[in-house]
Design goal:
Layout lengths: L2 E6 L3 H13 L3 E7 L5 H8 L3 E5 L7 H9 L6 E6 L5 H9 L3 E4 L3 H13 L7 H15 L9 H11 L4 H8 L3 H15 L4 H10 L4
Length: about 210
């Protein structure tokens, strides 16, 4: 069964050139070629391509928004972003939105077929620079999204609470009075916007605060 390719590119000359490459390949079938993404959901659902070639910069809805739209209903289709510039934030945003990789437009004639074959085999055409940016962003996502401006001592007490320690044990652990422990915990509750120890510990664990 032939591999179906769909193109979104607002530059008509480039769109026709890429369409010709696909049609003449003898390996892939062109299902559609479009100058904007205003009807991308209907088009993808009806034409069911295997690979989408998506320009990043387009009028109205851009390619990144289109990727987000597609991923809301299709997690399988491969999406290769077409871009003029390497190692930029737009490329990174597109990949984080769900794109399978990207290809510089200046390399389309020589590398398009290889890029399509690569995504179909489970790869992701991507420069080392963009790969490093993706890894950095993923590492950032793994960090607490919000530390709620907890002080170092409040974090220590919250971690102790998460271990099930009583106020008395916490006071002894940090050589402070029980009243001071209560004051810290009151501040922790206010910052986390919770009303109980159970809620505070649950939030701390779920959001990786401890």
């Amino acid at each position: 069964m032939p591999i179906k390719i769909q193109i979104y590119e607002d530059n008509q000359q480039l769109r026709e050139s890429v369409s010709a490459l696909i049609s003449l390949s003898g390996e892939f079938v062109l299902t559609g070629s479009f100058g904007d993404v205003t009807r991308v959901e209907d088009q993808v659902k009806s034409l069911r391509p295997d690979v989408i070639l998506m320009d990043i910069d387009m009028p109205g809805m851009n390619g990144i928004q289109a990727v987000q739209n597609i991923r809301s209903f299709d997690r399988i289709v491969h999406i290769i972003m077409l871009t003029v510039f390497d190692d930029n934030q737009h490329v990174l945003d597109a990949i984080c939105a769900g794109a399978s990789g990207y290809l510089l437009k200046k390399y389309l004639p020589e590398k398009l077929m290889d890029a399509i074959r690569e995504v179909l085999s489970g790869g992701a055409p991507m420069s080392p620079g963009i790969a490093r940016m993706v890894i950095s962003k993923l590492q950032h996502f793994s960090e607490p999204a919000n530390n709620y401006q907890l002080t170092p001592r409040e974090k220590e007490i919250l971690a102790s609470l998460a271990k099930g320690n009583s106020y008395k044990l916490i006071a002894a652990q940090f050589s402070i009075s029980i009243d001071t422990v209560r004051t810290h915990i009151k501040h922790i509750y206010e910052k986390l916007q919770v009303r109980s120890q159970t809620e505070a510990v649950s939030k701390a664990i779920n959001e990786k605060l401890v």
